[in-house]
Specification:
heteropentamer, A mainly alpha (437), B mainly alpha (661), C mainly alpha (105), D mainly alpha (538), E mainly alpha (171), B: 661 residues, mainly alpha, two-stranded antiparallel sheet, elongated, D: 538 residues, two-stranded antiparallel ribbon
Amino acid sequence: MSVVVVATSASEWTALRVVDSLALVATATDRFLECAPVMLRDAVTGLLPDPWRWIANGLFAIVAIFAVFGLLFAFLTLAERKILGRVQNRPGPNRAPTPTFPFAKFLGKIRTYGLAQPFADGVKALTKEDIVPDGADKVLHFLAPVALLAFATLTLVVIPFGRNLVALQLDAAVLYFFAAGAATELAVFMAGWASRNKYSLLAAMRALAQLISYELPLLLSWVPVVMIAGSLSTVAIVEAQAGWKFGFIPHWHVLTPWGFAGFVIFMVAALAESNRSPFDLPEAESELIAGHLTEYSGFKYAFFFMAEYFGMCALSGMAVTLFLGGWRAPLPFLEFIPSYAWFGAKLLALILGFMWIRATFPRLRIDQLTRFSWKFLVPLALINLGNTVVWALMSGGSPALALARWPVCAAIIVVPFVWLGRAQSASYAPRTYRYAA
Amino acid sequence: MSLPVQYVWLIPLLPLLAAGIGAVTPRGGVKIASAAAIGAMVLGFFLSCGALATALAHPAAHATANFAWFDLGAGTLRLGWVLDPIAAFMLVMVTFVGALIFIFSTGYMHEDERAKQFFCFLSLFASAMLGVVIANSLLLLFICWELVGLASYLLIGFWFHKPEAAAAAKKAFITTRIGDLGLLLGMLWLYDSTGSLLFYDGGHGVLEPTAVANLNAQLVFGGLALSTVIGLLIFCGAVGKSGQFPLHVWLPDAMEGPTPVSALIHAATMVAAGVFLMARVYPLLTPDALKVIAFTGAITALMGALIAVAQNDIKRILAFSTVSQLGYMMLAIGVGSWVAAIFHLLTHAFFKALLFLGAGSVIHAAHHEQDIRSLGGLRGPMKVTFATFAIGMMALAGVPFLFSGFWSKEAILHAAHGWEVSHLPFYMGLTAVVLTAFYMTRLMAETFFGKARTHASEHAHESPASMTIPLVILAVCAVALSLLAWPSPWLQHILDPKAHAEGGGAGLMVLSIVLVAIGIGSGWAIYGRTTREKATSADPLAARVPGVIAFLGARMKFDELYAATVFQLNAALATAADLLDRYVWDAAVRLLAQIGIFAGLVNRETDEDGLNGGFDATSESLRDTGKAYSRAQTGDAHGYLRTVAIGFVLLVLIVMLGGRR
Amino acid sequence: MSLSPLQLCLLFSSALFCVGLVGALSRSNTILVLLGVELMLNAANLNFIAFWRFSPSPSPATGVMFVIFSIAVAAAEAAVGLALVIAIYRHQKNIRLQEANRLKG
Amino acid sequence: MNNLPLLSLIIFTPWIGAALLAFLRGASVSVTRTLALAFSLAPLALGLVAAAAFDPARTAPQFVENHLWISALNVHYRLGLDGLSLVLVLLTGIVTPAALLAAWRQEHCPRMFGALFLLLQGAALGVFLALDFFHWFVFWELSLVPAFFLIKLWGGASGRGDAPATRAAYQFVIYTIGGSAFMLVGFAALFVATGTLDFHQLAQHGADGALAAKLGASGVRWVFLGVLLGLAVKVPLWPFHTWLPPAYAEAPTSGSMFLTGVMSKMGVYGFLRILWPIFPAQLHAAAPCLIWLAVAGVVLGAYAALRQTDLKRLVAYSSINHLSYCLLALFAVAYATGRNGLHGEAATAALSGAILQMFNHGLSAAALFYCVGVLESRAGGKRGIGDFGGVRTAAPLFAGLCGISLFSSLGLPGLNGFVGEFLIFRGVFGLHGAAATVACLGLLATAIFLLTFWQKVFHGPLGPNVGGALRPDSSSATDPSGHQAPPTPNGFADLNAIELAPLLPLVVLMFVLGVYPQLLAGLINPLVTSWAGHLVLP
Amino acid sequence: MILPLVIIALLTIAVAAIAMTLRNLIHSALLLIGSWAGIAAFYFWAGAEFAAFAQVLVYVGAVSMVVLFAVLLTRRSRADLEVAPDAIGRGLGAMLAGGAVLGVLFGAVFATRLDVAPTAAPTASVRAIGQQLMGAHAASLLVVGVILTVALLGAVVIASTDREGGKEDAR
């Protein structure tokens, strides 16, 4: 089962190769549901002449991404609020009425667990006044949310959402992903600086420090995957995780010692990269009002929000791709469920994890945050890199060696983990509860 | 039920596992350790019975299971197990006696907080001992032999905080190691000349005719056959382990260990290992070697009995009696009847274990009073102990017919009588018979009869069931083992079917019965009729022949003799080695060093004055040049960059214009 | 005369280089000087890519390789340079380059 | 994987660690210690990888790395691994981490300590892997530098260096360098004559007599004597051993562990790798004399130990005794070379025994030094044999482990020491019976002094530094019954987890190798067999 | 295929030139980042996909952050960001020197015949680059790694304060 990609045209844009479903070798899983998205696209664009077709395909992909993730964003905000509510023992939004416009007279207001809340929020954001502070750097103030959203969206392009479902198949897709992701830092800084508000600026500085600090473990954590898969292409990485050992253990990277460690590091760094709690220092409301968002309102504010969720989705999607086998089913007999459903399930699971973490962890202090990165995550990620080398070196030999690499590699990562963790917690004074029992 | 030889290793493995369990249980886990040890021994006993059944099915065959230990040269170094009747009998004996003594120990040691370790060591010992028994390789036997020694060392020194115990342990280990060196050399020689250490290996073993004939044919110094020398070297090991003259000195001291240890190791099993070893390698032994063995055994038997007469410590008496009995066994081997030796070994194991355990029971009851002069009158409060002890005593003394000791001793005396070389050992043995009966009677009389002479013995009470039940079982066995020889010499047939038991021993039997009667009678006359009044009152025998008794009481001054000779020599050698290091070699090194230092001094003087001056001047001029160049450094970064830019332009122009030309 | 694409690229890089040079020469703010230098470096990198792109047999990606190494070195240079700027700032409370001339001979 | 310069990695990983430690100025103590430990463990891991990929049946060096280094001198950077090297690499890999763990509580400049130790480890590994005299000698000499500083700066009773430690360090270094200077001169002569420094080529020259033809008979003899002297000092061969007891005694505990565990093996390795292959005829000629020197080392070393009151010196003398066994084996083989009716089997046994003995002694002597170190630290620097007593009462676990090491050292069957000694005696007996017989005395004396050590320190009533004074009443010790164990004192704590860490692996290995020596024997047997199969004189 | 190049070139140069003349440091920096992005676009145009991503990752992602950080760290008030106008003399000198260099370079470019035949864009696949990096250029890669490490450590050391204690993180 291999994806064969044929260059669509002889143009100089060979690097940008849009996957053309017609050129695909028919796979064993050509069930209707599996192929539905691609068939839908071809139904729309298939009639166009060839030079235009790939542009149309691209546009289709963009529209699809915006549609899917826009909706996902809307309901994720709701889910987040609901989940936070449940964790904090309160109901969460549950009162937004479902519009029943033509039949309002008969039905009255229907409250469906607050499912209409996102739309209400959207309307509210659109109708709010857009305030720009007096001394603000107007251009940057305007550009910041736009740039942020643009960069966040760009990252979604290379993630394979399902079999043959990748908008842009790049040779260096992983690199592209993180290159585009790195640019979001800039937007955050722009927002903070342009607001001409000392809290915003502080937030921008914090954001910068934080993003730089966590860029490193984030990048280091996926290098092992690239080493083992032998490719920077997301599609190839998913391919590398195909199959099952003994018929029931998937070859996902997360199920190896280095992969597990890499996954955890990746997720922690991703939390920080997407400014999520407990790393939400740039918008720490108890210290900085709302950080770089302080001077934003209305739809610009909504843009920031949207970008945050897009970023979260993108990083989670990348984690799924790199470590959790992408769109692959966990067990052979579950393959009848379409690939994008698997991807979506894994994505949602990770995002729910994000929310759970947000609900349960207290926020870090800035020095703790940087120390955690430089003194814990980075060394651990580096050790994990070496660990992967050991793993790869030991994989060639006898079955005994192949078995032995499990405890060896586990030890290589667990021992530093324990030790670094101890060193890490030893650097803090034991917490004293002065007023609590 | 039968146990094939391929699985015979299970028997030593069981106690080894028990030892492992004992080692890893926490300090308080006496119950676990003792249960594991006893369980292993009982299970081992059943397996041994299976092994015995296997062996008895083919009594003449030596079933072996050999295996490779590690690669050596083109081949491998092989070890192996052997299962033949002699090994099987030993297995049954060791496991049976061992199990009983283990059970006894639970009672005896229950106050000791390190009892768990005790069971661990006991199990280790049992494992090693069983290994000795079934080893089919002299090397494997040696390995187990040394481990037995280690266990003995650990157990003698079990109460290591007593300096005497620690010293006794060390003495035992070192003394036996002296013998072991002989064994090692013998083993090396054997290995070197035959290329194998396996006893039986389908015709290639060292005990099999080819190798033995080969060894007998080779002559070494003094016209001795090679096998004689090797046999005697191996005998050295047996001398050390079995407490034969002149290396017997450690055995009485070993009584510092807990009494069950004395019973198991220093009476029943380990000390008999030497005898077993000689029986095992009997095919190697030439008449020349046997002569030495016979005389050594006879001397030991007599000497042990003599010394025992003058001892006062209950365990010491038994210890010297053990020495004496081991001498008997060696005598039997020496005069060519290894079957009699093994028979005596088996019976002795039972009744001597019985005696030691009985002594342990007495000691336990009398709050660790071991001096027989301070005991007395225990017949009343300790009926079971008394009865069983009496059975053991009669077996040891050789009271006729009913007791196993009589038969085995009879077999030995018979064999000694039939020895063509000399009758001297026979007479020495007879003397020892009288003495044995005498000192055992003395022991009985002083301990159990008369009246209690100290507070401790007044308040003595019968020991718990865990101690008395083994006593009873052993007592039954001490009697029942007669069946091995009587009414028919069954053991003889099994072990050595070729040799036929000679008839006509009736006269000899009568003689020995008379001698035993004399011994017991004289003992009773001196000690039994008029019992001691106070613990401090004089010994009636010592009053009559004070010099002899004092000499014997001091164990014939062997320790003093060794201290004056061997120890002195050893210490002198050590001092010499140390002084050689300190004042000869080290001094030489120091002298060389001083010469070197002097040469260095001369060198330094010439260097400083002559060579260093010139460099200073050169350095000075270099520094001035550097100062001059540093002015070009203006500190204006823009200026530097500008200069670079202009320079670049000029260079390009030069190249381009130059290129045109 | 018509310019070949390669020449166009070279003109592009020369122009960028000069922009960087002028910036570096004219500004007194050390950060801007550094940025100018960075720009010059990038302009140089452009040439590598351009020559690689238009070389007759571009199969060994030597030009790309050069650029990758160059980028790595430039990153190192930027880090150290800006650290120096901060050190200068700490020392003389401003970052005017012409004032940082204490080490003159 | 095949292109990986595994052997270079083995050598240089510790050095990388040393460099790292040297630069980590601000790192906390625990970080430095852990780093040092991790880097010292790396060669073990790599060594195990090598062992896994190692083919014992091939007797030629494996994983060979060969690069021309200095073309003018025809010097190659040449590394290779055969069974002998592998065994020693593994030994180094085991002993060094144990030694570093032993110094875990060492507070005096742990960073430099770790760095020096790693340097030392790398140098030792280099010695075991080099196949060209040039860098072999570089490693050989380089190992002295850290060893010197370890003794000088961390030695002595205070653990911070004092006058006796300094003296011992100087004596150690100058003596050893003095010896190796002769060796260097010897090899210079060899190079001038043959134009190569490759061990293999030199061995071929030595074997086919080309060496003697080029250098002349007396020339070869002088070169041989020079090399012999260098190696004899290092091992040490009696009577060149006088540097050893003070050096071992004054070195810090972990230093002693490494010195005895690894560095003493360098000398024996040199004998096996250099002297014997290159100068077979000369060694054969000298063997009748050398054998008795080795026997003297065995016997007199043991007897001298009997007279020592300083526990460290005692263990040091036991090292002399044990290493002399290895040399005895080699000399006996050399002695018997070319003799008619030579038992190849005996030679095999002797050489196998020597190699196993090297490994086993490394384990047991390191463990013993560690135990003495524990005693010393508990007693505040005292380590006289009379300063203790009854330690087993106070610290049963420690006593047990120390006892196992001790019995391993005296060659108790079932533990590792026996196998090597048995094989050596088995071989030597077949090759030179008289020497074997006399050397047996050494076995006896070893038992005597080790058991005296054990008895005086661990047994008996509680001694002066074991909390004896704290006991409420002294009557219980003289209680004839012995049933009442004396109350546990609080003066002498048993081992804690960190102190257990260096000892436990060693003890476990003692058991494993004692019961299953095939683990090592399987690695070296083909090599040794091929050696024994080519015992000829030119 | 020329048109994208021209657009990229003009945009890049224009952005860079503006950045070099602006008085607001932040704007300068942001515009420069834009010009770096333009250079990345050029790489992309030339088919050096990997180099383009590397350029973005390093310059836009990392160097820009450092620059902005440096800018923010080296000012005491917002007014500091407005750089004082530079001396006319130096500006003039700069223009002269820059002009000279430009002239020389342009002259060189025009003077040289470089009209190579347009070929299909070469591709440098990531795999090929990886193999080259690990193969032919392995040594250089190692050296660069060392340089980066040293630079990182050096930057930390240079920028960290000399105050006693010195425990705070450099960044």
